[in-house]
Each structure stands twice: as C-alpha cells, then as structure tokens.
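Ticket #4471: structure output looks truncated?

Reporter: J.K.
Steps to reproduce: submitted the chain below (263 residues) through the standard prediction queue, then opened the result file.
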Amino acid sequence: MLNVSVLAELVRSAQPPTVLDVRWTLAKDGRAAYSAGHLPGAVFADLDEDLCGRPGAGGRHPLPDPAALEAALRRLGVRAGRPVVVYDAGGANPTGAAARAWWTLRWAGIDDVRVLDGGYAAWVADGRPVTTDPVEPALGDVTVTPGGMPVWTEAEASDPRNVLLDARIPQRYRGETEPVDPVAGHIPGARNLPAAETVDEHGLLRPPDVDGDRVGAYCGSGVTAAQLVLALHERGVPAALYVGSWSHWITDPGRPVAKGEAA
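Returned output as attached by the reporter:
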C-alpha cells in the first residue's frame, strides 16, 4: 500500500511509477469517471476488458488469457522493472477494483505493484491535483508469467479444512437478496467478512483479524474478494482467491447452496 504523500513524491520523481486508474462499478462507469478527472499521468485500465477474461462458464470475471493480458498491459504502458501503482474510487464501501488489479498483476508475475490507500477519494481529500488530460503511454514491454498468486478452485473453496471468507454484504451472504446472480445464498461453510470491514470511515485500509495458513476469499465474481486478499496480505496472512466465486459456483446445479447465518 502507498499513502497519498508517498505517491505524490513518486509521480514527481525522475522515474515515476506506471499509475493505473481502475475505477469500476457494475454500471461500468469507470471510463466516464476517469474522463471527469484523474491523477496526473494515470492511464485508465478497464477492469472488464483489460484485466479479466470474458464472462461465461468461469464466472463473470474469470482469469484473463495470459497472452491477452500481456498485450493489454503493454498497451497500458506497463514495463519490466518499473513499479506499478493502481487506484480506484476509494471510500468506505470498496468495490475491490484496485485490489483485483493488484492481484491480477501479481498473479501475472509482476511483483512491484502497490495500491493507493484510500484511492481517488483520498487523493482529492488531500488537495492533490487532478487533470482531465488524456494520457497516451509509450508501449510497454512487460512479460506475463502466470502463477504469482494462489488460486482456489471450487474444490478448495468447499474443502472444510480451509477457511473460506465471503466478501459480500450480509444480505447477499444470507441469501435474502441477490441483485446480480440468478441464485441467492452462499457456499456452505463460508464465513461472512464484508469488504467494507477492511477499511475505516475514510476508506483507508484496516486489515481484519483473521489468521491461518489455509485461507481463501470469494464474492460474486472475484473482484470484491480481492479486497480481502489485499487486506490479509497487508496483515501478513497469505490468502487465495476463488476467482470464479459465486457466479461460477452456481453454474453447476449440483453444488450445494446455503442460506442464513453460518452454523
């Protein structure tokens, strides 16, 4: 994680990092937000188009094809050996977009990736400059080597020996409402840890009190859950991501669905 002051110094330095704006919501309004104002030098990265695979049997935000990801990252100006900083909107209800970008780049073998703590909201609140000028980065040269982050399949997610955390809001976890996917409920045995509990009222990271060596996270489609993985990483707890998450779990009607609070 980086705070606003540190990032402000880095972007003014002789060798600034590559900064990616990955603001995203289900309404797909990230590009409009970027056009209305972004950090100087930041390049817009489309979470759906650049950093994830196509929706389908693997869920709504599956792993990207490595070759397609490499092409996208090069187009975004990501270079070998050059640090990357990602940010999203921030705030007290994190979407997980910056965390998923951080996770995807690390999964792709890019180690020096950090997230702006508090996101765009923290940058603006600190009185830092923003711009509407578009950025056309020089073509990058990064090479994608998958396997840099642990990934769980449905088998690991349902293994009772593992600790599975559900990052969705309690109402979705309990199956009382489901605004996105066609089936409501949660994976049996999962514990609910809403992503909002990983930040304070200002949207700054507040790592949760979770320990263990067999921890994984899921959500609706593997975006918000990345927020838990990031928060646990900052606490020193390695956690896996069930990328397909609930949107993949329910593609097989034979998989069990639980509702209500965990036993």
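Triage note (M.O.): checked the attachment and the full token line is present. Residues 165 and 217 are 5 Å apart (CA to CA).
Status: closed, working as intended.
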